[in-house]
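$ ./design --mode recover --in tokens.txt
reading tokens...
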């Protein structure tokens, strides 16, 4: 890992493995095919064209191999290729959240069970959570090919074996319903909800990203108008839903009441800070006993985790002692 620097990725969690600039020497050694995509930026530093989906996928493959020992990872064309440092940050903060109920210790065992809403073809959260903390996951999605690919990734990597139970959500309007089973418990849920409110908004956002990359000297070309897929790609259902992330999270909050006793912490990313007041108001209408907002930052990008629980502190500590202590 390279040494952190001001030009690296300020704001990452201290335990995030991706501090500082990408170490392209080590990355290309881990995945030699990446070498053909490495170029020099105007400052003479190695980088890749972040508007090139092939280059981004190879970078992800190298990061997974170098930092996590995950050597067999791929996604079908067009599916979301997530930025790994930010996804790792979510999990590091989630570990801290759980540690608050466990005498300040991060629980690292298969006794900890998480539910990933929208696991996707990339299975990024279960992969990193399994590699970093040894957790087990259920992964829910409405897309059959995505679930098939996620299961394939775990089957092809011995270090991930047994870490993911893929579950098809047959009702696109449901989130936890039909996924959380009777008598089942989860220590947390996590989610990267669809960000945009419409396909047109997703396309405009992709064009802005392309233009920003061009201004930064990371891509010399021009966007193809009307094409929503860019460097990190993503199918329509991964990128947008009616009402965007605010509407999606409101549905999540409403459904969480039904499963209040079966989950310790419900969490989700919130990309737009202006959505927080309305989401907090929605939570005040529930019996949630604690709500937290955990700020995150990667370079110039900021986001946050919204977390809520229906268990008071004493109940959370009792939960942790009962479910985690025996297997730590």
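writing sequence...
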């Amino acid at each position: 890992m390279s040494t952190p620097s001001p030009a690296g990725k300020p704001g990452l969690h201290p335990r995030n493995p991706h501090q500082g600039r990408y170490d392209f020497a080590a990355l290309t050694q881990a995945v030699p095919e990446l070498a053909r995509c490495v170029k020099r930026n105007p400052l003479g530093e190695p980088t890749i064209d972040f508007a090139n989906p092939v280059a981004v996928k190879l970078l992800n493959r190298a990061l997974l191999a170098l930092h996590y020992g995950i050597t067999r990872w791929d996604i079908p064309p067009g599916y979301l290729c997530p930025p790994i440092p930010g996804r790792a940050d979510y999990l590091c903060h989630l570990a801290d959240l759980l540690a608050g109920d466990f005498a300040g210790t991060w629980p690292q065992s298969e006794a900890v069970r998480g539910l990933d809403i929208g696991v996707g073809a990339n299975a990024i959260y279960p992969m990193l959570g399994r590699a970093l903390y040894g957790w087990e996951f259920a992964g829910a999605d409405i897309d059959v090919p995505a679930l098939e690919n996620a299961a394939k990734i775990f089957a092809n990597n011995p270090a991930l074996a047994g870490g993911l139970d893929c579950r098809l959500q047959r009702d696109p309007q449901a989130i936890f319903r039909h996924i959380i089973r009777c008598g089942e418990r989860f220590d947390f849920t996590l989610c990267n909800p669809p960000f945009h409110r419409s396909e047109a908004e997703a396309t405009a956002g992709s064009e802005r990203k392309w233009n920003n990359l061009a201004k930064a000297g990371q891509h010399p070309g021009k966007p193809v108008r009307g094409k929503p897929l860019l460097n990190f790609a993503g199918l329509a259902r991964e990128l947008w839903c009616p009402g965007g992330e605010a509407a999606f999270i409101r549905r999540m909050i409403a459904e969480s009441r039904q499963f209040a006793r079966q989950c310790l912490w419900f969490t989700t990313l919130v990309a737009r800070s202006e959505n927080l007041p309305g989401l907090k108001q929605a939570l005040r209408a529930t019996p949630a006993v604690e709500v937290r907002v955990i700020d995150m930052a990667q370079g110039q990008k900021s986001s946050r985790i919204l977390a809520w629980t229906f268990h008071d502190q004493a109940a959370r500590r009792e939960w942790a002692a009962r479910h985690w202590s025996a297997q730590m």
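exit 0
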